[in-house]
Fold protein acetyllysine N-acetyltransferase.
Amino acid sequence: MTAGGHARFCPGEEHGEIVFLTGSGLSARTGLGTFRGPDGLWAMEPETEQAMHAELLPGSLPMLWSVWGRMARIALDHGPTPGHRAIARLGAPVITQNIDGLHQAAGSEVVAELHGSALQAVCLGPECRWRATVVPGAGSRAEDHGVPAACPDCGEPTRPDVVLFDENLPADALELAVRLARRADLFVAVGTSGVVFPAAQLAPTAKAHGATTVLIDIDPPPDPALRAIFDHIIAEDAHEVLPDWERTLNQVGRSSFLDPF
Ligand SMILES: [Zn+2]
């Protein structure tokens, strides 16, 4: 299981507070793929990437609702991966770039959604506070079926609460993320490259506040910057590593888990 015969890093009792930072790699096996990769959504349907630019609002709303609705449905139908489930069972807070709601579906309670959520609709009206939960493919609202609608409070169009290109990250999620990074004893990046924002800022923040930093990536990029940011780089499948950690930390036998994936 370990490359080169070295013992793979595993958290111990000294890592009281574990904080995860997750990206699209963690949800890839749900069928969502990673957006940017060669098999990603944007490679298959280039026009959908177009719609991710904020300056195209509100004309892009039909495309946005249809794309995010479809993605959210795929994620919900598949459900959380073994990685999501292990993180939830560890009771660890999560900072995520994913908008698919799978950490919450797995049972994680503290989730900082840096890129928003495809399961929330918000109003385009800058002063309007209206928001609603979306139930893709199953709810009674137009948005649930990928169709744009008007805000019931003010009549402006509604949009998915996801961060588009050229938009700022939500301040409350970012604030929570920084707070979590500062208090972490162990900071673990999973399914995200680690060298771009926010990993490139959050992992060093955690490290500067005393955390051990770990990257789990089955194929880590050969970037020397990674070695400066992360104390340990585990080049293995997170869906094997995280359940192993969880079993070790919770000291239970393998036979008691019936993970369907
Ligand atoms: Zn409104």
